[in-house]
C-alpha cells in the first residue's frame, strides 16, 4: 500500500483502500462511470472540503478570513458576497472566476488584497470563484464560503445549493453529466454559523445543506457549529450570565447545542469580527494608539460613548470621528471596551500584546482546536465514506444493472475487511443520527460516542481509564451488543448492533 498517488496526498489507510477500489474498477465500467471514478480519485487526494454554511449575514465570510488569517473574502455587501468562493492552497496567490460552462477567467486582487467586491463580469453566468492562497491552514482543508442557505435571495441559495451539491468538475469535467457531478461533488464537512437564537429556519437550513450535500449527511462526525457575534449578546437576556457577555454566550451556545443535536457535535461561541481583525493584521499600532487615547478619557464620558455605536462615533471627543468609526468596524463596542480595560489595567501594554489579548477574547483558538480535532483527525474516514457514497451513486446513475452489481460487490468485499470497519461504523452512526434506524436514546448516545470519537478512552466513555479497565469494558460492551443484535432488536437495529459489537471487539483486540 502506498499513501501517495498521482492524485495527491491521501488522508490515510481508508482513503487508500477506496482509491484502490476505484482504480481496480475503472477498466470494468462504462467510460462515463470511469470518468466519475477519476473525479472521485482526484477528490480523495485533495484536502478535506469544509463548507462554511449558515444564514446570510451571520458572519461566515468574516470567520473565513479569521481562519485563513487574511481579509480576502469580501464581507457585508457587494455581488461577491452572493457567490460561492472556494479557498484552496496554492503556491501563488490567484483568483479565478469560473463560469457556468466551466470556462475560467483570472481576476486581479483588489488593492487591499481581497477579492474585488464587484467582478466586472456578468454575474448571472458565474458558477463560483476559486481563490488559491499560500495560507498554511489551506494545506489541510479547502474552505468553501457560501452566500447563505435560508436567505431570501433565491439566486444565492440556488448557487449555494449547486456548489455544495454539484460543483463543476475540474479539467475533463465535460465528460461528466449532471447526475455524476452531483454524485462526486459536495462538501465533506460543515462549519455551521449561527447567531443568537437558532430559529426554526436555521434547522431548515441545516436540513437543506444535508439534502444538498450529495455524499454525506451532516452529522456529529462531519459538522460543527459556532455561535458567532457572541459580543452582541446582551448578558441581561441570559439567565445565569452574571452580566458577563462571554458567559452569556457560552450558556446560549450550550442551549443551541441541544437544539441542533445530533446534527452537530457541539456549538462554540466565537467573535468572528475580533478574530478577523486580530488574525489578519487589520488591527494596527495606529488602532492601539487611538485606543490609548480613548482609555485616557474620564469614566463618565467613556461610559456614555460606549453605550451605542452612534453615540460612540458622534460624541464630541479628541479622537477623530473617522478613527472611531474604523475602530468600530474592526472591533465593535465590545472589543473596544475589552481593549480599553486592558490598557487601563496596564498602561505599558504594547500593540502586539493587545492584539493577542483580543485574539484570546475572540474564542478563535477553541474553534481552530475543534476543527483540528474533529476534521483533521477524521479526514480519512470522512473522505473515504464520502468517496464510497459517490462510487455507489455513480454506479446507480449508470443505469446498467451488471455494472451496479459489480461495484456493489467490490464495496462489500472492501467493507468486510477489518481495516475498513471504521467506514461501516460511520455509516451506522449516520443512520442512527439521521433517524433512519430507531434506537432507544441511551443506545443512540453510545453509538454516537463510539463512532464519533478518535481516542479509545473517549470512545468507551471512560476518559483517562487504565488499559485493563478499558479492555474489560470493551469486552463487556461487545458481548452486550452481540446479544442485543440476536435478541430483542428489530432487523434494522440488529444490523447496527452487529457493527457496534464488532467495533468494541476490534477495540478490545487492540487493547489486549
Ligand atoms: N459585532 C460583530 N459583528 C460581526 C461579527 N462577525 C461578523 N460581523 C459583521 O456582520 C456583518 C456580516 O458579516 P459577513 O461576514 O459579511 O456575513 P456573511 O453574509 O454570513 O458572510 C459584517 O458587517 C461583519 O463585520 C462578530 O463576531 N461581531
Ligand atoms: Mg459572505
Automatic annotation (TrEMBL):
Chief localization: membrane
Gene3D superfamilies assigned to the protein according to its UniProt record, in alphabetical order: P-loop containing nucleotide triphosphate hydrolases
Compartment(s): Membrane
Pfam families: Dynamin_N (PF00350)
Signal peptide: none
Domain Dynamin N-terminal: 50-206
Keyword line: GTP-binding, Hydrolase, Membrane, Nucleotide-binding
Identification of the protein by name: Isoniazid inducible gene protein IniC
Species: Amycolatopsis deserti
Amino acid at each position: 500500500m502506498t499513501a501517495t498517488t498521482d492524485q495527491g496526498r491521501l488522508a490515510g489507510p481508508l482513503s487508500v483502500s477506496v482509491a484502490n477500489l476505484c482504480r481496480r474498477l475503472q477498466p470494468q465500467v462504462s467510460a462515463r462511470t470511469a470518468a466519475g471514478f477519476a473525479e472521485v480519485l482526484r477528490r480523495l487526494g485533495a484536502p478535506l472540503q469544509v463548507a462554511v454554511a449558515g444564514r446570510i449575514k451571520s458572519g461566515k465570510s468574516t470567520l473565513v478570513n479569521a481562519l485563513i488569517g487574511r481579509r480576502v473574502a469580501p464581507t457585508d455587501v457587494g455581488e461577491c458576497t452572493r457567490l460561492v468562493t472556494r479557498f484552496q492552497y496554492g503556491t501563488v496567490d490567484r483568483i479565478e472566476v469560473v463560469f457556468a460552462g466551466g470556462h475560467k477567467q483570472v481576476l486581479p486582487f483588489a488593492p487591499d488584497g481581497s477579492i474585488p467586491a464587484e467582478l466586472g463580469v456578468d454575474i448571472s453566468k458565474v458558477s463560483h470563484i476559486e481563490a488559491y492562497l499560500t495560507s498554511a491552514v489551506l494545506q489541510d482543508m479547502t474552505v468553501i464560503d457560501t452566500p447563505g442557505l435560508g436567505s431570501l435571495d433565491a439566486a444565492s441559495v440556488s448557487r449555494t445549493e449547486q456548489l455544495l451539491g454539484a460543483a463543476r468538475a475540474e479539467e475533463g469535467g465535460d465528460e461528466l453529466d449532471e447526475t455524476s457531478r452531483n454524485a462526486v461533488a459536495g462538501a465533506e464537512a460543515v462549519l455551521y454559523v449561527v447567531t443568537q437564537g437558532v430559529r426554526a429556519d436555521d434547522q431548515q437550513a441545516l436540513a437543506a445543506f444535508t439534502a444538498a450535500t450529495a455524499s454525506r449527511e451532516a452529522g456529529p462526525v462531519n459538522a460543527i457549529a459556532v455561535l458567532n457575534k457572541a459580543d452582541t449578546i446582551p448578558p441581561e437576556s441570559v439567565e445565569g450570565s452574571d452580566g458577563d457577555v462571554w458567559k452569556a454566550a457560552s450558556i446560549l451556545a450550550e442551549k443551541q447545542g441541544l437544539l441542533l443535536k445530533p446534527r452537530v457535535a457541539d456549538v462554540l461561541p466565537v467573535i468572528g469580527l475580533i478574530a478577523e481583525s486580530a488574525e489578519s493584521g487589520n488591527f494596527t499600532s495606529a488602532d492601539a494608539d487611538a485606543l490609548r487615547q480613548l482609555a485616557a478619557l474620564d469614566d463618565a464620558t467613556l461610559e456614555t460613548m460606549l453605550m451605542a455605536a452612534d453615540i460612540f462615533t458622534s460624541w464630541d471627543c479628541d479622537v477623530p470621528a473617522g478613527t472611531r468609526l474604523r475602530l468600530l468596524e474592526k472591533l465593535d463596542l465590545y472589543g473596544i471596551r475589552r481593549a480599553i480595560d486592558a490598557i487601563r489595567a496596564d498602561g505599558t501594554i504594547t500593540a502586539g500584546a493587545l492584539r493577542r489579548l483580543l485574539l484570546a477574547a475572540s474564542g478563535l483558538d477553541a474553534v481552530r482546536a475543534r476543527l483540528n480535532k474533529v476534521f483533521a483527525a477524521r479526514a480519512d474516514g470522512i473522505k473515504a465514506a464520502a468517496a464510497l457514497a459517490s462510487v455507489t451513486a455513480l454506479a446507480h446513475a449508470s443505469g446498467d444493472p451488471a455494472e451496479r452489481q459489480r461495484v456493489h460487490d467490490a464495496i462489500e468485499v472492501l467493507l468486510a475487511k477489518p481495516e475498513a470497519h471504521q467506514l461501516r461504523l460511520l455509516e451506522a452512526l449516520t443512520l442512527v443520527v439521521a433517524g433512519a434506524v430507531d434506537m432507544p436514546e441511551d443506545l443512540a448516545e453510545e453509538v454516537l460516542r463510539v463512532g464519533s470519537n478518535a481516542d479509545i478512552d473517549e470512545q468507551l466513555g471512560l476518559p483517562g481509564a487504565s488499559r485493563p479497565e478499558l479492555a474489560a469494558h470493551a469486552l463487556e460492551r461487545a458481548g452486550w451488543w452481540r446479544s442485543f443484535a440476536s435478541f430483542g432488536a428489530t432487523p434494522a437495529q440488529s444490523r447496527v448492533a452487529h457493527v457496534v459489537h464488532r467495533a468494541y471487539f476490534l477495540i478490545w483486540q487492540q487493547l489486549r
